[in-house]
Amino acid sequence: MKSKKIKNIACITFVIIGIFYSNIVTGNASIKTTRNSKSGNNNINETNKKEDSQVNTTEENKIDKITYTYGDYGLFITKEFNDGKNHILIENDKMILISEKDTDGDGLLDYMEDLMGYDKNKKDTDGDGLNDGFEYKYLNTDVLKKDSDGNGISDADEDYDKDGVSNIKEQELGTNPNSVDTDNDGLTDYEELNKHHTNPLRPDTDKDGLSDSEEIKLGLDPNKAKTDGVTIDSERLFEQSADESIKSKNVLESDNWLSPSISGKVHHDISDNVGLELVEYPSFKDNKGVVSDILKYKTSYDIPVKLTFSYKTYYLGDIKNLTIVSYIEGELKIVDTNIDTRNKKIYGMIKDEGEYFVIDIDKFLKEYGIDVFAGMSKWKDIPKSKMNEKTKIVQNFLNILENKDKKIYNIEKLRGKLEFKEIDLKSFRKKLLKKPKEGYWLILDDYSKIKLNGRITDIKHNDTDKDGLTDAEELGIGVDIDMSDYINLLLDRHSIPRETYNGEKSIIVWRFNSNPTELDTDFDGLPDGNIRYSDISGNFDEED
Fold first, then answer.
1. What rounded mean pLDDT belongs to the chain?
2. CB-CB contact of 16 with 68 (8 Å)
3. What is the distance between the alpha carbons of residues 169 and 167, in angstroms, rounded to a whole number?
4. Higher pLDDT residue, 56 or 355?
5. pLDDT in tens, 24-42
6. H-run or E-run covering 40
7. 3-state secondary structure of 6
8. In angstroms, rounded to a whole number, what is the distance separating the alpha carbons of residues 101 and 96?
9. Which of 160-169, 450-459, 490-499 is least confident?
């Protein structure tokens, strides 16, 4: 057993490999003389100085960094606490002479062996084949017994970390008997020694830039830098699919109908270089057009990979309306998306880190005031004289006839969906311009929608959130965002001519300074106008 005795006036634990010294330090430079030792000041000048990066302490007296000095008889602390005093008291009752001498070279200093009752002139006191220092530091076995647990197996033949390699073999090889994977390369010490014949002390045995486990996973030789004899293994590209380890816990636990995955032709192990995390964006949280989880993509690659959303249940809406989009640094962009209904997959190539998710284009645009199908021309007739050419007749975009190469397409499904309800050809955007008493809807540049009190023309005077700033001061500048790419993609997906659409093609978003409907946009405890809460009055409840 390792004997330890600690006195700590400041309730501080200071452990030094099983031995403690007696000495009180009061301040940064002064050191009191220990019993039977040289004077404190002379002792400092004659000994080595080292630094520890951290000491375990209580919160009341936390030390981030200390300087200690050790000599023949003691160890001296030279660091002030938060209160300017050092209260540490450590005892060395036996007054054993301290030195750095290790006579038998077993890894334990002589004074330690004297203290513990080991033989300082013999590397292996109990004769079990294990050095005293190896047993003491790594195995927690009894240095004075060959069979510490009395199970009939010597400590040398035991396997402390259960990795298949005996303690004596680990000592011989220099591997860690406390770790199944000494070099942390993903292969156990046993696998490296007996299966792959790699170096258990080196994560990249052949020094080609790939860890040994990566090479095994990719079908390469971890003992050859150029498995094919031509190209360094780390520079070769391999078609791979990332495993589930790339997904955060909330992605794995999500019940969304679209399940994401990453694949690609890349170097190194793709699972070690990409990641997906589910994130919440209030701007899109209640948007009915967002049909997947919003995923944050992280990567160390500078080449594209494939983002795939797989599904088992069918989409209740129109699958043709779906596309992947990216949201990076406040900019929303369409990702070139393929829809494979046979294999139930939606996929596209992505490169940059950022947020990615799937939207229903039709529903997404409607959220921002653009109803594509309601913005179609009611009639577009083409003279019969041109019937031999590509001819299209669109009536409320319900029926499309095409006479080309003797083929006729009649989209009766679309007719069936829309024929039995009246179509309001007014733009949905105009519907947002509600009566003054109901407020006015606007879109902020993070794509969130807000409702202001009164008319838009009154924003220079209105203060919807009663924070001391007018709505105009908070809104900033309104800019047009072109949504043509979304509109055209939706039309193309339904084989509807783009020229038949004559509705809104842009939305106005506001580069807001603060949210005019939030009293405290940045949650700093102060209203955006920095006025006292007691000065705020009025009804903050919005109308339904």
1. 76
2. no
3. 5
4. 355
5. 333 333 333 333 333 333 3
6. helix 40-46
7. strand
8. 13
9. 450-459
Strands (E), 242-397: 259-266, 274-278, 295-299, 305-310, 322-328, 331-334, 337-340, 345-350, 354-360, 379-380, 394-395
**C-alpha–C-alpha distance, residues 302 and 147, integer Å:** 56
Q: Which domains does the chain have, with CATH numbers?
A: 189-236 (no CATH), 241-367 (2.60.220), 377-418 (no CATH), 428-535 (no CATH)
What pairing do the DSSP bridges indicate for beta strands 305-310 and 345-350?
A: antiparallel
Q: Which residues pair with 298 in a beta bridge?
A: 275
Q: Which helix (H) or strand (E) holds 43?
A: helix 40-46
**What's the CA gap between 453 and 284, in Å, rounded?**
23
Burial class from Cβ neighbours inside 10 Å (0-12, 13-18, 19+) for residue 422 reads exposed
b/e code 127-160 from CB counts within 10 Å (16+ = b): ebbbbbbbbbebbebbbeebbbeeeeebbbebbb
CA 460/CA 474 separation, integer angstroms: 10
d(CA 423, CA 372): 12
**By the 8 A CB rule, do 303 and 351 touch?**
yes
SS3 458: helix
Q: CB neighbours of 273 closer than 8 A, spacing ≥ 6?
A: 266, 299, 300, 301
Compute how many other C-beta atoms are within 10 angstroms of the C-beta atom of residue 341: 12
Tokens representing residue 401 in the block: 């006839």
Task: For residue 383, count other CB atoms closer than 10 A to its CB.
Answer: 7
pLDDT class of 336 with cuts at 50, 70, 90:
very high
Distance separating alpha carbons of residues 400 and 408, to the nearest angstrom: 9
Closest to 255 in 3D by CA, of 278, 284, 276 = 278
Q: What are phi and psi of 209, to 5 degrees?
A: 95, -5
- Work out whether strand 259-266 and strand 337-340 pair parallel, antiparallel, or are unpaired: unpaired
Of 532 and 459, more confident:
459
